[in-house]
Amino acid sequence: MFHARLASNKKLTASIFSHPYVASTKDRVIFLAHNGFVDLGKNSSRKVVDTEYLLNMIAKEGAESAIAKAKGRVHKKSALNLLMLCIERNPVRASLKCLNYYRKDSPKSYFDLYYSRLKGGTAVFSSTFCRYGLKGSMVVPAFGKLMDLEKL
């Protein structure tokens, strides 16, 4: 799991701000990579990346609740595209999920996520990678819904 990040806030470009972020609770370990810009409101003065903030919300409230709140805070012409790996502790099992979400005033051709079944696994990638890298069958996941990659 990796994400090439272009920082919107140039003060947040050190290696500590690299994706994926990780959070641990008593029930699970969560890794999160995010593309887009979520307005942190009063928390924006802290030295925290929106992905880290969102991950902490997911760890505390659960993915569905945190994502619903974050959708209302997506910056103009931006996205809330996510790739999330959850490893449950008991019983031990992992799930890889993605969210394809962007504001309606955002360019769909730029912000859509894609996935493809490849030899050796499934890849989730941005439109940029789709245009300049990967060749083959590419599919856009359902819009606005957290999808389990095993069920796509």
Count of discrete structural domains: 1
Sheet/helix structural class: alpha+beta
Q: Counting H and I runs of at least 4 residues, what is the number of helices?
A: 4
Helices and strands, in order, run as EEHHEEHEEHE
Head-to-tail CA distance between termini: 18 Å
> What is the count of β-strands?
7
Strand order within the widest beta sheet: 1-2-3-4-7
- How large is the share of residues in beta strands? 25-35%
Largest sheet: 5 strands, antiparallel
Q: Any idea what the radius of gyration is?
A: 15 Å
Shape label = globular
Low-confidence regions: none
Q: What's the mean pLDDT score?
A: 83
Percent helix, as a range, is: 10-25%
Describe this structure in words.
The chain is built from 4 helices and 7 strands. It has 152 residues and is an alpha+beta fold. A 5-stranded antiparallel beta sheet has the order 1-2-3-4-7. Helix 1 packs across helix 2 (63-71). The longest helix has 12 residues, at 50-61.
List the helices and strands and how they pair.
Elements: E1 21-24, E2 28-36, H1 50-61, H2 63-71, E3 80-89, E4 92-99, H3 108-111, E5 113-118, E6 121-126, H4 127-132, E7 147-148
Antiparallel strand pairs: 1-2, 2-3, 3-4, 4-7, 5-6
Short description:
By secondary structure, the chain is α+β, with helices and mostly antiparallel strands. The protein is built from four helices and seven strands, in the order ββααββαββαβ. Helix 1 packs across helix 2 (63-71).
